[in-house]
Amino acid sequence: MKSDYLSWFQKNEDFFETLFKEDSLIFNHLHDTIKVLNFISNQEKVNEDLEVFYEIGFPYLFNKVNDIKYYVENYFNNNLSKFLKYEILINYTLYLDDLIDSLTEKKLFDNNIKIELSKINEEIDDILRNKKKFDNDLINKYDLVIQSLIPNTQILTIPEIFHRAAEELRL
User: 75 with 127: CB under 8 angstroms?
Assistant: First the structure.
């Protein structure tokens, strides 16, 4: 699995560097996962805990990068500057996907939450597809909707878990 990740990472390194140079929110969304996976990849021996991070992190990162590239290619015709104008919304869709996964895992993803998050996703998709203007306050509106829906239990998404792991590993 290490060689698969390292090969994949090498193929995507220019993409990551470009996002990094642009101080991209999208890169920030992925950065801790990348740091932890790169750390693990450079270890001779990996304990069980780190192996679990690897088994979760690589497929997660692989899928998210494919999603991001899909947006760049299909919504913005490979125009990164146009993509970056809308990245706050794309980053939010990534967050929503992560949240849905976490809620599903904790068996908290009910029909009401599904309907409301679908509405948010559809609104974002309409803005992206039609290159509509939007205000960053839209994110605050979405956050309020989510806060009203989600129980006050601690829900950690994969990026949040990897952020904690990166802190623990002092990366």
Answer: no
Contacts of 5 (CB under 8 A, 6+ apart): 37, 41, 54, 58
Cα–Cα distance measured from residue 139 to residue 91, given in angstroms and rounded to the nearest whole number: 10
Q: Using a cut of 0.70, tell me whether the model's pTM lies above it.
A: yes
Q: pLDDT tens digits, residue range 50-87?
A: 899 999 999 999 999 999 999 999 999 999 999 999 99
The pair phi, psi for residue 108, each rounded to 5°, is: -115, 0
131, 79 in Cβ contact below 8 A?
no
- Three-state SS at 17: helix
> Which residue, among 47, 53, 73, 72, has the nearest Cα to 5 in the 3D structure?
53
Per the structure block, which two tokens stand in for 151?
Answer: 């129980």
φ, ψ (nearest 5 deg) of residue 170:
60, 50
